[in-house]
Amino acid sequence: MRRAETLCTIAPMASPHWPLFGLRLRTPRLVLRLPALEDLTALADLAAEGVHDPETQPFAVPWTDAPPAERARGLLQFHWSCWADWRPSAWTLNLVADLDGTIVGTQGLMGTDFPVLREVSTGSWVGRRYQGRGIGTEMRAAVLGLAFEGLGAEYAVSAAFADNEASFAVSRKLGYREDGIERRVVRGRPMVVRRVRLDRAAWQARRTVPVTIEGLAPCLPLFGLDG
Asked: Which domains does the chain have, with CATH numbers?
């Protein structure tokens, strides 16, 4: 049996109390879903291998500076904490990206007071051995499809350190525009964060990745929306 078939078998069934387990975002190459324990284990193994050049730190919270075993364990705890903290007024949806049965990265979509603001933010990473193949673009396109088409968002925002060209290349490809800067302290020194913003019109004009959304209807109340 292929690994893709195995993952399909062990993936948790959607619960009427937690229907997010039935949500699927499909792109030409990927399936994004809420992770089962086996998916989280695969993602944690990927994180332990390394996500970026150790000489740099692309994350505002430098979780990848931890030793590999601690990094892997912390990843599981982070995902579980997002489930536990979920509220319709403030939610973080962290999905794993499945490429032909292999977990290759994770894509997050976050919203605060979403029914009023209609704005989401995103964050992601791809395992180092899978980088440079356009997977990051496809992952973000998937959650943008969920945000704008599925949830009715008006804006999507993102941010990265000024030297993170890979992130900005994805943003430019998807139609984001510059939205100002911030300054953060990382590893004891100041870093410039560049913000980018995508509105609904720009998203519609730059859509190139087809996205299919499955299992969304029963999830809408969890996002603060009417079913």
From this structure: 3-8+17-208 (3.40.630.30)
